[in-house]
């Protein structure tokens, strides 16, 4: 059994290292501390993140910076309508040796990396999008009947533009559920935009520095899973997730009236892991209900769907989640999220 004192020392040491990592990322990705926190929480939990935001908000820069700071081998795929699964996974080619013999050799695709940036993921066809499903969940791909392992670590940070819907294919529910969190990247406020102007239009720009290695990230993920979770937090997670399923007896009236379907067990798992990671990022030894409140929207939004009637009334998923979380967990979601 792990000595509690050793666990406390490990958590405190990791917290110091994470503070340095956040500072390094924020030097380049200015004024988006909550976005950085959510993406780091997803990586500490061993999961993937979907970044949703308008063009020019620095989503690509964030992924590039994270690969440097976390010491990961990066790869990038620009998703387009003509992209094929083999362009992601790789393919076998027939080679002829000097003696005339022929044999197939597998050429690895860009998915064989540690941090994959899937840029504008909703521009690819469903067939190509599905090529990521096995990799994101099982950390392996199957090509020509052969299973090939990925990582560890292996993380997908995908970007999606919410306004350019022409020529796009909405992500299927099964793939959305593979993303641990959905991170909404908003416009910066005036002061932040001023800082961005000054920092990025001069003779030089701030450089990110490596803080972690791949092995250290794997060790950090193990520490997150060892963090204790109180019974109050476990019950809060179960109460919230089950209250957001319109078919459950525990479903709230607002959920039954507004949702076509709700989150599955993977949402509860995501809340449990990311709540631990957020507590660690805030220098605490265990998660609290506040962490569950703060992560309700990022974890649940892409795992729910409004009914047709609710869309016609102008309801939003954010509004439904806020009302459900306030009723189940108490007031404070607006301040915590």
UniProtKB/TrEMBL annotation:
Domain of life, per lineage: Bacteria
Classification via CDD domains: AAA
Family classification: Belongs to the MoxR family.
GO MF annotation terms: ATP binding; ATP hydrolysis activity
Domain AAA+ ATPase: 45-189
Keywords: ATP-binding, Nucleotide-binding
Name by which UniProt lists this protein: MoxR family ATPase
InterPro entries recorded: AAA+_ATPase, ATPase_AAA-3, CbbQ/NirQ/NorQ/GpvN, ChlI/MoxR_AAA_lid, P-loop_NTPase
């Amino acid at each position: 059994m792990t000595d509690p004192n050793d666990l406390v020392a490990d958590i405190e040491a990791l917290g110091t290292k994470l503070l340095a990592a956040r500072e390094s990322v924020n030097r380049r990705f200015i004024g988006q501390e909550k976005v950085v926190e959510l993406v780091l929480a997803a990586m500490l939990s061993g999961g993937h993140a979907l970044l949703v935001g308008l063009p020019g908000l620095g989503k690509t820069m964030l992924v590039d910076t994270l690969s440097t700071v976390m010491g990961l081998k990066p790869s990038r795929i620009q998703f387009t309508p003509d992209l094929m699964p083999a362009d992601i996974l790789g393919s076998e080619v027939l080679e002829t040796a000097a003696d005339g013999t022929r044999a197939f050799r597998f050429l690895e695709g860009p998915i064989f990396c540690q941090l994959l940036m899937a840029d504008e993921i909703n521009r690819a066809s469903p067939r190509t999008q599905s090529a990521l499903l096995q990799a994101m969940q099982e950390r392996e791909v199957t090509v020509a009947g052969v299973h090939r392992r990925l990582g560890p670590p292996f993380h997908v940070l995908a970007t999606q533009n919410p306004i350019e819907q022409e020529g796009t294919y909405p992500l299927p529910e099964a793939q959305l559920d593979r993303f641990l969190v959905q991170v909404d990247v908003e416009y910066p406020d005036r002061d932040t935009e001023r800082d961005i102007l000054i920092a990025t239009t001069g003779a030089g720009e701030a450089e990110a520095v490596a803080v972690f290695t791949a092995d250290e990230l794997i060790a950090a993920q193990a520490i997150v899973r060892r963090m204790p979770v109180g019974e109050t937090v476990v019950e809060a997670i179960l109460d919230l997730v089950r209250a957001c399923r319109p078919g459950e007896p525990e479903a709230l009236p607002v959920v039954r009236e507004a949702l076509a379907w709700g989150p599955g067990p993977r949402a509860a798992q995501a809340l449990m892991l990311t709540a631990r990671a957020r507590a660690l990022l805030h220098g605490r030894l265990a998660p609290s209900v506040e962490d569950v409140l703060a992560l309700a929207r990022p974890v649940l939004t892409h795992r729910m769907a409004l009914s047709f009637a609710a869309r016609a009334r102008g309801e939003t998923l954010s509004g439904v989640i806020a009302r459900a979380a306030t009723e189940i967990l108490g007031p404070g979601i607006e301040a915590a999220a």
